Amino acid sequence: MDFLQWLDQVTQLLTHPLLSVGKTDITVSRIIALIGFLVLARVLVAIIDRGLLRLARPDRTVTLSKSGIYALSRIMRYTVWGIVAFMGIDYLGINLSHLALVGGAIGVGIGFGLQNIFSNFISGIVLLLEQTLKVGDFVDLQSGVVGRVSEISIRYTRVTTNDSVDVIVPNSEFINGRVTNWTFDNENRRIHVPFGAAYGCDKELVREAGLAAAASVEGTVSNTTHKSDVWLVGFGDSSLNFELVIWVDEDLVKTPARTQALYLWALETELSARNIEIPFPQRDLHIRSGVLRIANESSDAEPAA
Asked: Which family is this sequence assigned to (predicted)?
């Protein structure tokens, strides 16, 4: 078998129709070309990602934020995949005008059961474009999920809690529900740490202990605009109720439970060093002495004489 015969057989194999879609024959060569389109899309996406990462380098004259690069790379990725998909379909010879029936079926599906998927898809696009939610933000959702945003996908957002638990949250929850973003546009936040001191204590000494406790915790922000303070906020049953009001940096904002524990630990240390009593509920029991007289009467009457 010479080379020309071998080439002819290979050509026949590649052009032999495997199946037909309407008037279009799907051949091996068309499938190989479609795979080539997908590989090309993969390469283009990688090139775009590398190019956008270069814009974040500090030595560049024009730089973008990490969140901006993430959103732009995601949008470019979906755009490239969409263009390549349409090019592949067109190369296969499938008339896109014939997909109107498929589009109608998809519309019916959205109306009956896919509305949530479609809503999450649109919500993901809105989140990426508006930049109200960025990778690295620390959020508190209305559903009770608290953690750091690790990934914003087209259908869901991955929130990682401080216990390293990944929670998959539908994008529509960020659009329709209440979301507290602790690190939206300011790295510093003010928190309140409640504590109590016994009645009769020196309030100024309590303030001194609170400020010393705040200063001893790494991450406390103290400057002309952000100052720590101690507030007397109420009179409890067993104690004077105070609050340590401090400004903290981004690292402490993202670990609220640990932050609360750090300040309570420091407060106990400083209060004990100044002999300030931390009260606890107490009850006094008073016992009276005396004699309890009990009269017993016989229930049987004595017989008459």
From this structure: Belongs to the MscS (TC 1.A.23) family.
